[in-house]
Amino acid sequence: MKAAPLTSIRARQREKRAQRHPLLRYWDLYLMVLPALIFLIIFKYVPMYGVVIAFKDYNLIQGVFHSKWVGLQYFRELFTFDEFPRVIRNTLLISLMKLIVGFPAPIALALLLNELRLEKFKRSVQTVTYLPHFISWVVIGGIAVDLLSPNSGIVNKLIQALGFEPIFFLSDEKMFRWILVLSDTWKEIGWGAIIYLAALLGINEELFQAATVDGAGRLRQIWHISLPGIRSTIVILLLLRIGHVLDAGFEQVLVMYNPTVYDVGDIIDTYVFRVGLGTMQFGLTTAAGLFKSVIGCILLVLANTIARRMGEEGIY
After folding, report:
1. What is the mean pLDDT of residues 283-292?
2. CA 115: distance to chain centroid?
3. Which of 52, 133, 160, 161 keeps 20 to 30 A from 81, CA to CA?
4. Is the dihedral of CA 305, 310, 311, 312 positive or negative?
5. CATH number of 73-309
6. Which 3 state secondary structure label does DSSP give 105?
7. Can you tell me the distance from the alpha carbon of 286 to that of 292, in angstroms, rounded to the nearest whole number?
C-alpha cells in the first residue's frame, strides 16, 4: 500500500479541527479573554446583589439579607422630595449640554488631526490634548478655583485690568453649568479623539486619491468620505453616551459646586451624597442609583432600536 500524501493528511487534520466545538477550536482566544471575563464577573456582576438594599431598611449589623424588608418605601420618599424635580432637571440639562458640546468636539479634533501631515506636530498635539484625561477632578477643581478666583485668579485680574468688575464665576448660577461643560470637554476631548483617529485610519486611502483626481477639496473629502467612514463608530459611542445621560459627572460637580449654586448645579449623585450618605440612609442612595440604572438601560435600548431601524449596526 502506498502511504497517503502528507498534504492530504494535513487537510484531514484541519478538517477534524474545524469540526470541533468552537471552545476547543478557539481555545487560545477564549483563554486570552478569560481574565477580563473574571474581572467583569467579580467587580460588576457579583456586587449587583447589593441592589436589594433599595428595598430594605439596611442595618450595618444585621447585614443585607437580615435587614427588614420595606418594599418601595425609599422610592416613594425619593420621588416625593421637594428638591427631587429640581435635581432631575439639573442632571438632564447638564448631561444634554455636555452631549451637545462635548460629543462633537472629539470628532472635530480627530478630523483636524487627520489632516495634519507633520507627524511630530501631530503627535505633540495629541499628547497635549489627551493628557488632561489622566488628571484627577480634584486637581482640575483646584486649578479652576485658582484661575477663576475673584481675588487672585488670573482671569479676573485680566478683567480688572480692562476696567471691569471681577466676576464670581463659580458662584454665578448663569455661568456655573457652562464651566462644568467646558472643563469636561477640555478634559476628555483628546481621549475621545483617539478612538475616532483609529477609525479614520481604517478608511481606504484610495477613496481620498480618487476624490482628489475628481477635483474634490479637503472639506468635501471630509464630508463625503471621512465622516461616512466613521459613522458606525459615532453611532456606537453616541448610544453609550445616551445610556449614561443621568450621569452628569459626580466628581466634577462635587469638587466645583458650593451652596450658592445648588439650584443649578445639584445633580442626582451629589444630592444623594449629601442627603442620603450624610444621614446614613443607604437604602435611599441605592434606590436613587437603581432608578438611574433603569432609566439609562431603557434609553439605551430605545436608542439602539432606533439606530438599527435606521440601518446602523447598534451595539447588540
Report:
1. 85
2. 26
3. 52
4. negative
5. 1.10.3720.10
6. helix
7. 10
Q: For the residues 295-309, what does the mean pLDDT come to?
A: 86
Report pLDDT digits (tens) over 37-65.
Answer: 999 999 888 888 888 888 988 887 888 88
CA distance 195 to 96: 22
- Decide: helix, strand or coil at residue 135: coil
| CA–CA distance, 313 with 193 (Å, rounded to integer) | 21
Under DSSP, the state recorded for 72 is T
What is d(CA 268, CA 95) in angstroms, rounded to the nearest whole number?
A: 12
Q: Which residue has the higher pLDDT, 307 or 89?
A: 89
Cell of 273: 451624597
Q: Where are the beta strands (DSSP E) in 52-105?
A: 56-59, 63-69
Beta bridge mates, 69: 56
Binned at pLDDT 50, 70 and 90, residue 9 comes out as: low
- pLDDT band, residue 2 (cuts 50/70/90): very low
By the 10 Å C-beta count (0-12 exposed, 13-18 middle, 19+ buried), 88 is classed as middle
Distance CA 68, CA 237 (A): 41
| pLDDT tens digit sequence for 241-257 | 888 888 888 899 999 98
Rounded to whole angstroms, the Cα distance separating 285 from 244 reads 18
CB 15 within 8 A of CB 8: no
What are the angstrom distances between the C-alpha of 4 and each of 7, 8, 10, 183?
A: 8, 7, 10, 71
Nearest to 128 by CA among 116, 120, 139: 120
Q: Which residue has the cell 467583569?
A: 40
CA nearest neighbour of 125 among 136, 111, 109, 102: 109
Q: Do 115 and 220 contact (CB within 8 A), yes or no?
A: no
Average pLDDT over residues 72-85: 84
Residues in the chain: 316
Contact at 8 Å (CB) between 276 and 188?
Answer: no
Helices 104-115 and 173-201, axial angle in degrees (round to 10): 50
* pLDDT-based confidence at residue 111 (cuts at 50, 70, 90): very high
